[in-house]
Design a protein that fits this description.
The complex is a heterodimer. Chain A is mainly α. Chain A is built from 13 helices and 2 strands; from the N terminus they run H-E-E-H-H-H-H-H-H-H-H-H-H-H-H. Chain A has helices at 2-47, 65-72, 74-106, 112-124, 127-138, 144-151, 163-191, 195-203, 208-236, 240-245, 253-256, 259-269, 273-301, and strands at 50-51, 60-61. Chain A has a two-stranded antiparallel ribbon with strand order 1-2. Chain B is built from 20 helices and 12 strands. The longest helix of chain B has 29 residues, at 2-30. Chain B starts with a helix and ends with a helix. Classes of the chains: A mainly alpha, B alpha/beta. Chain A binds chain B through residues 17, 20-21, 24, 27-28, 31, 54-57, 141-142, 161, 247-251, 253-254, 265, 268-271, and chain B through 4, 7, 11, 14-15, 18, 95, 98-99, 102-103, 105-106, 123, 126-127, 129, 219-220, 268, 270-272, 281, 283, 401, 403-404, 407-408, 410-411, 414-415, 418.
Chain lengths: 305, 441
Amino acid sequence: MRSKRITKIKSSRKTWNEWCWGWVMIFPTIAGLLILNIIPIFETFYLSFFKSGAFGKGNIFIGLENYRKMFQDAQVWYAVRNTLGYTCLVVPATIVIALLLAVALNGKMRGKGIYRTIYFIPMVAAPAAVTMVWKWLYNNQYGLINYLLNRLGIDTVNWIDNPKIALVSVSIIGIWSTIGYSMVLLLAGLQEIPRDYYEASNIDGASGIRQFFHITLPLVSPTLFFVLVTSIITSMQVFDVVYMMIGVTNPSYDSTVSLVYLFYNNSFKYSNKGYGSAIVMLLLLIIMLITVVQGKLQKKWVNYM
Amino acid sequence: MKKRIISTLLCTAMLAATLAGCGNTTDSAATANGQEEVKTEVTVDAAKETPSKDAVTISYACWDSNQANLIRTMADEFEAQNPDIKIDIQVSGWSDYWTGLEAAGTGGSLPDTFWMHSNNIYYYGANDQLLDLGDYIAGSDNVDLANYPEGLNEIYNIDGKQYAVPKDYDTIALWYNKTLFDEAGIGYPDDTWTWDDLKEAARKLTKDDGSQYGFCAGLHNQEGYYNFVYQNGGEIITGDRKSGYDEEATIAGIEEYFSFVKEGLSPEIYDDQARAEAIQNGLCAMGLFGSWNLSGFAASDFMKENFDCAVLPMSNEGGKSSIFNGLGNAIAATTQYPDQAWKWVEYLSSKEGQERQAELGVAISAYNGTADMFTDAYPMFNAKSYIDMVDYAQIRPYSNQTSVWEDKAYELLKDAYAGKEDTADACIKVAEMMNQAISEE
């Protein structure tokens, strides 16, 4: 009886010690998260009920006026449509290509390191610089892509100024620049899969394609889920590519403006921070909904070993 | 037991280390009335006694890299005369400049001195971001506002307080490719040209295969349709602060400007930079450009060889105009060194500084009587045409928060520009938007 009590105290001391250590270790992250993310979220929410004054002074409380205005603003709905459209174009394409590349680069192949580096480089380059180069590639007077198309006998495509194509052009840059990141994550996931499964299936005479769908895909699904959730969130926050490529005077503006771009224009260009905050709250709500739905759906397809 | 002691010690040490970063700032703020204050006083005294030892750095923000290079020369000369002041010139692009400046203003860290523009002066001046220069000007031997055009002084005067001293002024001129004109056998533009002449020449200079256009009518206000509006007797903003976009003369002016695109005499250009490129790579034979482009154009061999400028053509009824604007040098209200900042602005605004600016060809100096020095800086071009237009030039239209409606006007006009919407309908929409924006100022 007595000895049992002592062990109980001892073990609770041990848990206390571990608990303490745990908090110390994550303290820097928690502090950063609080200061840079959590507090600003509430401040933005608070600000969305105000007509913001000049230079952060003299905010006037206007209740739900910003939200009322937002729901009547056609441009906000264009932005929602464009943001979702961009995400639908970028995320599936990125994941499919990244997964295929990861599988290919996971096998035995010469110069693997070089290929991995090449695919990852766009992730390292500054988005603004990358967009400037793409802008030149897309140029309809002297751009490289149109030059090549003309050589093949195809008419010049107005990649940037044509509202019907611009979102696709922007998405191509998005796909190109995020493949490498997703690929590296998936590669790490693939390397977790024990070789035994493949050896066993080889003995059973399974083909490469069967192995991919019955071993690789299910076992990489936790990583795939992570990549899916994070790339949807990043795509929903698209800003720099659109901002650099399409100005407000551009005819493609309405068909490419993203929610973050609209937030930027309203908050900083038109000095209406309250309205900008309301737009960001809408974005937060959409991302939250998508993420919750994904969390519910994961039980259906993600296999944790 | 020993282990636990070590771990607790480590624990506290790490906590202390992570907190140290934030701790410092809060500490000094909390004990601001104690020893800290004494310390700062000592350092201030030391700085006063030996001014040349640690020179004060005055930041100067602007948005034009062509000008910034030449202003650097002036800053070097100024530093040589004032060894206790260093000038740090900070350049950013036009729109980044204003977003950055507003963020800096909100955070209380504006550059010491910076360029001001008619679009934004009210927003900054009325919200206590700028230093009232009235007393400084009154006490200065070198600066007298009477030496500057009255219209420019007025831009920067809010309720009797002078928030900036005029730096320069600018007008818009017609640039044309002499080589292409010679090839087509057309006489160069001059002050007898009307809109019809411009269009006639544009027709002759346009090639059917799209390799060459007669005119570059980019979607731009100051270097574009504003000029046509005022030539036609229209206005962008009325005397009683209403939108002029729904006036018949305004719509007709915009219509005339847009017609170059609709008739295939100009490419559709939306991007600011693309307009200059269209001229410089020989795609367009003519275009409207402000005087601030001179230093950039003079640096291009292609422009020097092939191009010249002329006054803007007048409307068919003989209406003349050119959009006229000027920048000012302002000082932040929050600057730590108002006296040194004023010394720099005083130099820039003095006869000496303004003449130097004109001589170097930075921009057309605002100081009366320096215009000839500016034209002399560009002997390869007929830079005088910019100055000739001042007599009938129209101040760039502005209200208290011009930037709010100016960009939105582009958004509403671009379909009409591309020929997808009736210009009059688009203009009426702009007028509604603009009246709404002005009423909220």
